Amino acid sequence: MKAFEAVQHYFNSAADVLGLSDELRTLLATPEREITVQLPVEMDDGRLVSLIGYRVQHNRVRGPMKGGLRYHHEVDLDEVRSLASLMTWKTAVVNIPFGGAKGGVTVDSRAISSREKERITRKFVDEIHELIGPDKDIPAPDMGTDHEVMAWFVNQYNKYEGFNPAVVTGKPVEAYGIPGREEATGRGVGILTIKSLGRLGYKVPGATIAVQGFGNVGSHAAKFLSEAECKVVAVSDLSGGYYNPEGLDIMQVVRYSREHGNSLAGFPGAKAITNDDLLELDVVVLIPAALGGVITTENADRIRAKLIVEAANMPVRPDADDLLAARDITILPDVLANAGGVTVSYFEWAQNRQFYQWNLNRVRGELDHMLSTAFEQVWDLAVEHKVTLRTAAYMVGIQRVALAAKLAGLTS
């Protein structure tokens, strides 16, 4: 099952419960615009390479479209389309006034220099600047991009459209960014993990947790949960997993990663395991925070966690999702679990429009409030309709988008 087909599977499961007509399903599920552009870029060695860039604008009925921009060698139109539609439901679940979009360039971000990445970014802006903007479509960092890429993006956009920092979010704080944006997704994962543990009847102190992926999201989630006295027993990155049943000193892990080029290779004081082994550990909480599609029918029956919190996008495949549900394993879905990033992106966009910067305490307080509100709505709906949290989250999002479409006169 391809990525967009997987999102549509979840969409249709929720639409069935809501009793949506076929006409309305087609209206809500079909992307409004799909953009494919060629990016001829001169590399540092003088070669001219032609890369392909994508921007899929899925839905704007609730506001300007919002979604990340990723640089990855596996980016294709189907993946970008699926993530754009996911953003439509994600922004609606947390009730921020955005629609959904996503973008990407098919390039290995680890194999290019900083100057090459800058040229790719500027060329991409050259090709799409007329179709994006603070009131149209607002990109943000994603896999393979960061605050520096967003700063280049704004600078190039301003050459065409004039000064407007609200064209992207995830910018450096010194360049009209917002405090707390870097930690936002991981912090949100931590907040919602604690709320889920409470609802499931587990004590937060001492709850065992495994985190697959120790990048920006996974590291901040692990740090937040460690500070809440959870026992993070395993983490991993591209070099493999590191397991200590007595619990890891997360600040030591963070320092080691920074001192070794953002790599955990050779981390002492923990048993080396594989990423696959980490997924199958006997823990209370499993947090997949790396790539999508890591839990499949091949390993679903070996998952022993009681709660899976989807920090990554679509880490659980639909067929595995059904198997896990049948075993009463609770899954906090990506459309809610990792919505902290887009929520703080909304705060950044709002402060840019007002030319007024929020402080970190306000950002964290507002983030906690908005995610907590969304969590309670989704949980209560799941209980009311006797459906999974994923179906309930999609139901919340679909209802809001459908209502906006009706009020706009797009459907009866």
Task: Give a written overview of the molecule.
The protein is of the alpha/beta class and 412 residues long. It has a seven-stranded mixed β-sheet with strand order 9-8-7-6-10-11-12, sandwiched between helices. A five-stranded mixed β-sheet has the order 1-2-4-3-5. Strand 1 and strand 2 form a beta hairpin. Helix 1 runs parallel beside helix 3 and helix 1 packs across helix 14. The mean pLDDT is 96. Keywords: NAD, Nucleotide-binding, Oxidoreductase. This is Glutamate dehydrogenase.
Give a summary of the structure in a few sentences:
The protein is α/β, with parallel strands linked by helices and 412 residues long. The protein has helices at 3-18, 22-29, 77-93, 114-128, 147-161, 181-200, 216-227, 250-259, 275-279, 318-326, 334-337, 340-354, 360-385, 389-407; strands at 33-42, 48-59, 65-72, 99-106, 137-141, 208-212, 231-237, 240-243, 271-273, 285-288, 307-309, 330-332.
Report low-confidence residues grouped into runs of 5 or more. none
- Give me the side-by-side strand order of the main sheet: 9-8-7-6-10-11-12
Tell me the structural class: alpha/beta
CATH fold field value of the domain at 182-332: Rossmann fold
Order of helices and strands: HHEEEHEHEHHEHEEHEHEEHEHHHH
CATH class of the domain at 182-332: Alpha Beta
Major beta-sheet overview: 7 strands, mixed
Strand elements, count? 12
CATH superfamily of the domain at 182-332: NAD(P)-binding Rossmann-like Domain
What overall geometry do the principal axes of the alpha carbons give? globular
User: Per CATH, which architecture of the domain at 182-332?
Assistant: 3-Layer(aba) Sandwich
